[in-house]
Design a protein that fits this description.
This protein has helices at residues 8-20, 24-31, 35-43, 50-59, 64-80, 90-135, 140-149, 156-169, 174-190, 195-215, 219-235, 246-259, 263-276, 282-295, 299-314, 319-335, 339-344, 346-356, 359-375, 379-395, 399-415, 419-435, 440-454, 460-473, 491-497. With 509 residues, the protein is mainly alpha-helical. The longest helix has 46 residues, at 90-135. It is globular and about 75 Å long. The relative contact order is 0.05.
Length: 509
């Protein structure tokens, strides 16, 4: 039977995994890639890209450059190994040996190309870090001048590093994020090299310009930037040998589509990014995916994505990031009606919130606790928790959140037929929302809520729909509220519905 020899990168993976003492099952557990797919990679039944090989080597604790060098030494040793004595099937063995020698040479050439590319990239990135150490102490104008006038700053890896710094800055200052992304773009435009490579670097930078514009709230301009990014990135396809992370480019565009409420497109881009990721972006991609699924009201899917992200996020060991992950998990468990599971993670959430030292996190945690208590039918505890949350949010000047918590509290009062308390809350909420500059549709919905409360005809159905609507409308001012007061449900129906969460939208904050 004819023997099919796997392609070079497949052989490299097989060699390195075996030499490192990893089984396919162990590597599958470490990377999240199914063991049968790893087997297909090694046998050549599925195409193994250089990017995926890079991520697998990293998962085994190998630096790609040193790992590939070791692979080449091994292949060279195999090429000069003393042949076995001739036997009855010597001709067949000789034919296989010749074919193996040819393929060993092919593997060596492929690995040498990849190793050389990776080695050059590492050197460029080391130089970029040194350049940034000098640039970051200067103001924006001086940085720009140096890039324009001094040749050594025209380094593609400096553009890549400035993109990374733009991402880091986005959490604190959208203006700084945009300044760094624009500088990254200018470096990319001035960087030397073949045209296809330069287009690839510029496409990467434009994606970060688009992201910074999104953070600033300029979605049309961000959309234009991502259009340029796609054109340049595609024009330079194949020029970078996987040096630049395509998962980052796709993930950033997914964030824009989510902000534009084009959720299906965002989900598709996120899944493509996850398929290409080299274990650098996965935690952020999965968190974004959970947020998209939450918006699509696929709470079960959001829970799955968050649990998949958990081992990746836990490696960072930052209390604030861990808190955000587990808090979002708790919120989506509530949305899924799994209040008991949500309650089980509360002690760990409490420890993380205390470790992070953020008082707003503690307030939001108490808010989540109130929802859990309501879902478990412990109304008195829920009312106490939400009343305290409402006071804390008012003290912190978080008026919009305070009004939203008030709506949830009003729903609990309504279930207990405490109409006077509902009327008091309804009178207090409308002025707060008006002062916040809430859009006309939201104010009209709140007017409906107040009038129904005053006439004592407010239903649980209307109160819950209004609460859900206002959470969604916070990030979507074009969203209109449709519906009016309806006849109240029976007591039995009200009790059943009270186990469902009445608020959305906190998962992403």
């Amino acid at each position: 039977m004819e023997r099919k020899i796997p392609p070079p990168l497949s052989l490299a993976l097989d060699i390195l995994r075996t030499r490192q003492g990893w089984t396919q099952k162990e590597l599958a557990a470490a990377t999240g890639i199914p063991a049968n797919l790893l087997s297909d990679y090694e046998r050549g039944r599925k195409t193994l890209t250089a990017e995926r090989l890079d991520s697998l080597l990293t998962a085994m604790g190998l630096q790609p450059s040193s790992a590939l060098r070791a692979a080449m030494r091994f292949l060279q040793d195999e090429a000069v190994r003393e042949p076995d004595p001739p036997g009855p099937e010597s001709r067949q063995i000789e034919a296989v040996a010749v074919e193996s020698g040819r393929l060993i040479a092919e593997v060596t050439r492929s690995l040498m190309t990849l190793w050389t590319t990776q080695g050059q990239a590492l050197e460029a990135r080391r130089e970029a870090r040194d350049l940034w150490e000098g640039l970051k102490r200067k103001d924006a104008a001086r940085r720009r001048l140096l890039v324009e006038k001094v040749a050594r700053y025209r380094n593609w890896a400096l553009s890549e590093l400035l993109c990374e710094e733009s991402i880091k800055a986005a959490g604190d200052s959208a203006d700084r994020a945009l300044e760094l992304a624009n500088l990254a773009l200018r470096v990319a435009e001035l960087a030397p090299g073949e045209e296809a490579w330069r287009q690839r670097v510029q496409g990467y930078a434009w994606a970060h310009v688009g992201n910074a514009r999104r953070v600033k709230g300029d979605l049309p301009s961000a959309d234009e930037a991502f259009g340029r990014s796609r054109r340049l990135w595609s024009a330079g396809a194949g020029a970078d040998s996987g040096v630049l992370n395509e998962a980052r480019v796709l993930g950033l565009e997914a964030s824009l589509r989510r902000a534009q409420r084009r959720f299906e497109e965002s989900l598709c881009l996120t899944d493509r990014a996850l398929a290409l990721d080299r274990n650098y972006e996965a935690q952020y991609l999965l968190l974004n995916k959970a947020g998209i699924l939450n918006e699509l009201e696929d709470y079960e899917g959001a829970v799955v994505a968050l649990r998949e992200a958990m081992p990746l996020v836990e490696r960072d060991s930052e209390p604030r990031i861990l808190f955000a992950l587990r808090f979002n998990l708790g919120v989506n468990l509530c949305f899924s009606g799994k209040h008991q599971e949500a309650e089980e993670i509360m002690p760990q959430l409490q420890r993380l919130a205390v470790a992070a030292g953020n008082s707003i996190d503690l307030t939001r945690l108490r808010w989540l606790e109130g929802r859990i208590m309501a879902g478990l039918g412990r109304k008195r505890e829920a009312v106490a928790a939400l009343s305290r949350v409402r006071e804390e949010l008012a003290t912190k000047g978080m008026s919009y959140d305070m009004a939203l918590a008030s709506l949830e509290l009003a729903t609990l009062y309504l279930e207990e037929r405490r109409t006077i308390e509902v009327q008091v809350l309804a009178r207090q909420i409308s002025p707060v929302f008006r002062a916040q500059g809430v859009h006309r549709e939201a104010l009209a919905a709140l007017k409906l809520f107040r009038e129904a409360a005053e006439r004592q005809v407010l239903t649980l159905s209307l109160a819950r729909r209004l609460t859900t609507y206002l959470h969604r409308a916070r990030n979507n001012p074009d969203l209109a509220f449709e519906g009016a007061a309806e006849p109240d449900d029976t007591d039995g129906q009200a009790r059943s519905e009270s186990t469902q969460p009445s608020a959305r939208g906190h998962a992403g904050r």
